[in-house]
């Protein structure tokens, strides 16, 4: 089993309230859930209007497949014209057998 945790930090320049922020993030979160069947959540900067961090969990039987799924998620997030990606980080989780 291979587990990859992906975090993507975003800047939301058009948001002027938390309500606007949530309405901007909702299609991104739901798009990741439905297109890729992954767990995703807003994980940081919850009280800031123009910043967000998304956390995505990828579980796969191979490293290659997990990496390809994470690549696809990143491309999906980068394709959004209303946000700016300020950073992305991948962390592999290790398991002792």
Give structural notes.
By secondary structure, this protein is an alpha+beta fold. 36% of the residues lie in helices and 37% in strands. The chain has a 4-stranded antiparallel sheet with strand order 2-3-1-4. A hairpin with a 6-residue loop joins strand 2 (39-44) and strand 3 (51-60). Helix 1 packs antiparallel against helix 2. The mean pLDDT is 92.
What would a concise description of this structure say?
This protein is an alpha+beta fold and 97 residues long.
The spatial strand order of the largest sheet comes to 2-3-1-4
Following the backbone from N to C, one meets helices and strands in this order, namely EHEEHE
Q: CATH fold name, please?
A: Alpha-Beta Plaits
Round the Cα radius of gyration to an integer and report it: 14 Å
CATH architecture label name: 2-Layer Sandwich
Instruction: Please give the count of helices.
Output: 2
**CATH class placement:** Alpha Beta
Give the biggest beta sheet. Answer: 4 strands, antiparallel
Net shape: elongated
CA-CA gap between termini: 11 Å
Structural class from helices and strands?
alpha+beta
Query: Care to count the β-strands?
Result: 4
* DSSP strand content: 35-45%
Mean pLDDT: 92
User: In the residues, how many domains can be counted?
Assistant: 1
CATH superfamily: TT1725-like
Low-confidence stretches: none
- Share in helix: 25-40%
């Amino acid at each position: 089993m291979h587990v990859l945790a992906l975090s993507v930090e975003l800047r939301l320049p058009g948001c002027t309230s938390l309500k606007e922020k949530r309405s901007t993030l909702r299609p991104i979160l739901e798009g990741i859930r439905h297109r890729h069947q992954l767990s995703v959540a807003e994980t940081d900067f919850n009280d800031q209007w123009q910043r967000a961090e998304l956390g995505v969990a990828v579980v796969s039987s191979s490293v290659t497949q997990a990496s390809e799924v994470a690549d696809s998620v990143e491309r999906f997030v980068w394709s959004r014209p209303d946000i700016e990606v300020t950073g992305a980080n991948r962390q592999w989780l290790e398991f002792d057998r």
